[in-house]
Amino acid sequence: MIAARALLAAAALLTALPALAGKPPLAEGERVDLNRASAAELMKLPGVGQKRAAAIVARRARTPFRRVEDVLTVKGLSRRWLAKEREHLAVGPAPSPAGLAGAVPARAAAGPPGAR
Q: Which helix (H) or strand (E) holds 79?
């Protein structure tokens, strides 16, 4: 009787695991670009919910990510998390200047003409 209950409990737990996970795992080879992904796409990553996705988006709005390790500047993301999820992370080119609010044009940042 006890063995039957344990077996029934184990079966119930196994059927509930996908629901407990809350989101399907990323496919092998699937990558999320930290500079271009929407908050919804970022939330596909394990351990990234609405708040962390918003924090990643806010961080990249200030300064685009240059390398995957830069994501560690986001509160709540650890080296351990990065080690587990590195294969699913990518850092592509930052969005075009037209897509960045408050960005300084490259010409203005270089100084006045003839100053070289």
A: helix 79-85
Q: Using an 8 Å Cβ cutoff, are 95 and 65 in contact?
A: no
**Alpha-helical runs (H) found in 22-47:** 39-42
Q: What is the pTM of this model?
A: 0.64
CATH code: domain 27-92 is: 1.10.150.320
For residue range 61-109, list pLDDT tens digits in order: 999 999 999 999 999 999 999 999 999 999 998 877 655 444 444 444 4
DSSP 95: P
- Residue count (the chain): 116
Q: Where are the domains of the chain?
A: 27-92
H or E stretch at 51: helix 50-62
CB-CB contact of 101 with 61 (8 Å): yes
